[in-house]
């Protein structure tokens, strides 16, 4: 990053117009989880959740999927049809291997929002990446299709991951699964893999936006250290306005 500063002309001699030059500046230091999500302070750290946490959480996952099927099933059908009509020659789904619980690699499915050769074109667009590697994001990514922009803005492209929830690869609330393997992380990052990956999490509801890789990891670790059913419910409820206000798509 750099900032513009003015070169002040000498007091001697004719008055000249100041010129601007770029001076490198350091990026701001990563913020803590509580700076990103102040309301997280209401949830104390705990060594581990209660004994009933896991079975109840699994029951809630399956019950939620079943009860909301009349909503997400037609949305999925309409979105899949739109993807096919927008680019008839390409697949409807995009599948990618990502890292979930305990570093286990799982296959995650999404509705395709980019051109079919998007992965092959990633290297040539690396200079436009706006995030710290291994995160990759371009605001106006030229690989995103017309329908894909709508699906991403509304997070409808994530609907196929409900299948991962039913299988038990994902849960409703938890750290998002990474595309990179654990060997790309520092040792303290690995704590995020001690809990099941999820459809939504603190990334999606961080009011002040977790923009850096380190900040996202800190949010994941903070969730792991504070996880409980009440926190999961609050994250789920906060995800709805985050998506509607277009803060939830990642």
Automatic annotation (TrEMBL):
Residues 1-29 are annotated as: Disordered. GO terms for molecular function: phosphotransferase activity, for other substituted phosphate groups. Residues 57-244 form the Bacterial sugar transferase domain. InterPro entries: Bact_transf (IPR003362). Belongs to the bacterial sugar transferase family. This is Bacterial sugar transferase domain-containing protein. It comes from Egicoccus halophilus.
